[in-house]
Structure formats: structure tokens, C-alpha cells
Amino acid sequence: VELIESGGGSVQAGGSLRLSCVASGITLNDYTMAWFRQAPGKNREAVAVISYHGTTTYYLASVKSRFAISRDNAQRMVYLEMNNLKPEDTAKYYCNRLVASWDWGQGTQVTVSS
Q: What is the mean pLDDT of residues 62-73?
């Protein structure tokens, strides 16, 4: 399995970004997927989760109403729409399955300045 994340960047507070993740080597709709983030000196945390067919989502409290996770199983893609970004959202973002993660991809850096 290979996971490739993209779409990160540097934005000012209040800005938006859309992250993308392509997963190769798997049938994506077999898995609950998630976006994770890791800031320097902190543990990796799950920020958004999406069920097999995209009908159920869960969000970390601090990002709820600002982030939206979606997926396109046919294209093996998982997305994270991030709005009203805050400096505390600064981290490297990764996608992976929620449980029993595959090898992590390179991630994509999100930097939010105040």
C-alpha cells in the first residue's frame, strides 16, 4: 500500500486548504479512513474519520464545523477540506486507515500564520 498526500501549504489564519490523499494497492472501500496530523513535539492525532462508503464521519472537537472529510472510492482518494484555519492547525497531515495503519506516507505540511 502506498499513500500519497498533497495539497498542503502556508496560509494566513482564516484561510482554506484542500488536502488530497491517493491510495494505491488496495480496494479503498474496504476500509474506514482517517486524516491524522502531527505537530512538532506532539503525538499524532486523528482529526477526521470517514466510514467505508462515506456515510458517517467523525471529527476532533477542535476542527468540527471547520473541516470536512470525503472520499471517492473509485478514484482511491480521500480528501480533507479545511476552512477557517487557525495557527494551532499547523502540522504535517497524513491519511491512513483508522485502525492498524499501513506504512505512513510522507504527509503534507500545513502552516497557518496569525
A: 97
